[in-house]
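Tokens help. Our protein:
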Amino acid sequence: MAQYFQIHPQTPQERLIRRAVEVIRNGGLIVYPSDSSYALGCQIDNKDALERIRRIRQLGQEHRFALVCLDVSQISAFARFGNEAFRVIKMLTPGPYTFILKATKEVPRRLQHPKFKTIGIRIPDSLIVQALVKELGEPLFSSTLIMPGEDQAMSEPYEIRERLEKQVDLIIDADVVPYEPTTIIGFTEDNPEIIRQGKAIVTFLQ
């Protein structure tokens, strides 16, 4: 049965953040609120939790996952990018963006796109996420909480608890988080390309 924490989105309680990170470090799978949706999260090297995410969402091997980072400097250990990519990411973050970058050798193959060897990177504009990642001391492995057969992420904490309390270890309730897909920006040879216009409308790259 999952633990259930109500954490304030603007003033996250430090005690609950520490307890949530303890769950993650102990191999747990959590549901947490980002700036664009609720998501599933775990430690990068947690194979069991990764497979639990795949089962919950019924995902294939081709699915792109994301690493949720605290800032640009934390990205450099997990993704390769040049000056232009650095400039764009620095300009747009924190915010509702996913950046598709070439993965470094630090990223386990199971987390990379099997064909393109890329990884999604996020730096969300969420105080809860920032507090979690800062306390954890490393990026959080993440997947948007979209259930099989649905095209919208779950947004209501009560419904999430009803459906997933036996499949995850912790649910963080930060009230309703309406689903608004992130804007996805890919980088080819350091040149940015808008793959999907989402919550954030980007025009200067077009």
Remarks:
- The two ends are 47 Å apart (CA to CA).
- The chain has six helices and eleven strands.
- The chain has one domain: 3-196.
